[in-house]
Design a protein that fits this description.
Blueprint: E1 2-13, E2 16-25, E3 28-33, E4 39-44, E5 49-52, E6 54-56, H1 75-84, E7 87-94, H2 103-113, E8 119-125, H3 137-142, E9 147-151, H4 161-174, E10 177-181, H5 185-197, H6 205-209, H7 212-229, E11 233-235, H8 241-252, E12 257-261, H9 264-267, H10 292-303, E13 307-310, H11 347-357, H12 363-377, E14 395-405, H13 408-411, E15 424-434, E16 437-441, E17 444-445
Parallel strand pairs: 1-4, 1-5, 6-7, 7-8, 8-9, 9-10, 10-11, 11-12, 12-13
Antiparallel strand pairs: 1-2, 2-3, 5-14, 14-15, 15-16, 16-17
Helix pairs in contact: 4-7, 7-8, 8-10
The structure holds N-(aminocarbonyl)-beta-alanine and zinc ion (ZN) (3 copies).
One zinc ion binds next to loops.
GO molecular function, one term: dihydropyrimidinase activity
Family: Belongs to the metallo-dependent hydrolases superfamily. Hydantoinase/dihydropyrimidinase family.
Cofactor: Zn(2+)
Length: about 450
Amino acid sequence: MHDLAIRGGTAVLGGVVVRCDIGITGGRIATIAERIAEAARVVDADGLLVLPGGVDSHCHVEEPFPEGGFQEESWESASRSAFAGGTTTLVAHTPQFKGGMLMEQHRAARARAARGMIDHGFHQIIADPSGAAMAEIPALVADGVGSLKAFLTYDALHLDDAGFLQVLQAARRHGLMVHVHCENYDAINLATRALLAAGHVAPKYHAVSRPPVVEREATHRAIALAELVGQPIQVFHVSCAEVAEEIARAQARGVPVKGETCPQYLVLTAEDMDRPGFEGAKFMCSPAPRAAADHEGVWSMIRRGVLDVVTSDHCGFSFEGTRGKGKNGRDAGFDAIPNGIPGLAARLPLLFSEGVSKGRIDLVAFAKLVAENPARIARLYPRKGVIAVGSDADLVLWDAGRRVTITNDLMQHAIDYTPYEGMEVTGWPAMTIRRGEVVMQDGVVTAEPGSGEWLPR
Ligand code: URP
Ligand code: ZN
Ligand code: ZN
Ligand code: ZN
């Protein structure tokens, strides 16, 4: 007898879509069959899609800042938001501060994440690859960290070519994946200084300071250096087709490089940062949202498979309050506004609505983009990211026809706004199941704090 049976739904099982029942025992998928007769609990999924729970392999949760304090989004609120949006696994980031060590931060990050409800792993940021900290990488690997994160921009984090090469070499030595934020630090600084000197301080100048060429150049360079070292990389948050083209060219040569994009590059634009007053700050993230005409270019790169993962890059700063977008004052220049937007709960609904409901991609492609491919890259597949016998019973029951207008309340995060406020989507999660436990039903999250598991990768 199964603990739980999901009966009569239309399930995405890897490459096929079939009407079937799913039987769950001990938190895992035990049976996939036309009919499962007996179970302690039965969920009627008639009329619903049954999808693998979303795997969000790029997000920022409760990260500490070098100047002290933490991001507003706690592991508990992030878990709630993720479950509300049909996501059941997060891979977030552990920082390294310049001159700092790794293991102490890693242990502290694990302790914070253990207070949440969602299963999780970490990318280890390397901001200072020359010092003693690198000797701690074997300990990190032993504890299940499967990837390093390199930033080619941001004052506190950016690596020059020598530093990035060191990260690539370390990853190669220890068999780790490298994820890269690709933007040219010096080019952004030059443009930023010129804009500020000319009095151009408003949020919209964020996009002007970091045009696509800045991202394209760094992407090209990151790929070339990775090719030189022979280290696989994934380029994070690709914003437009001209950047993805660099990845496509390398893939055609056989270079192991992957590309990720995010919903913000499919629905937001640089013009959103030109809203009255300080409003534009709500849409500020890096890379910057591009032109509306760029959205179809990103879709075509998704359909070509050049970009095969869609994550949120959730990095929330509230609009109000001393830790938020205005923490340096609303008259401060655009360069003093923290980068990042919240998006944990909106990721699946936006991608489903823009992708599946509007006929740009099919259901199988959708499940691969939001669950299977991120799970593979994060080395969590087939435990996560797929509906298959033996996999964790992480499922989302999806109401494909439900029309919802996005509001901040529906996001259930700790941030006081959503950049997607007022957008109408078709398709919404009705129920989220994590390891066989119903953790969200009709928007109500019921999971116990502390129930999320560490995922060694
Ligand atoms: O603006 C962004 N994306 N903030 C989050 C950190 C990062 O760059 O991924
Ligand atoms: Zn980034
Ligand atoms: Zn970013
Ligand atoms: Zn990020």
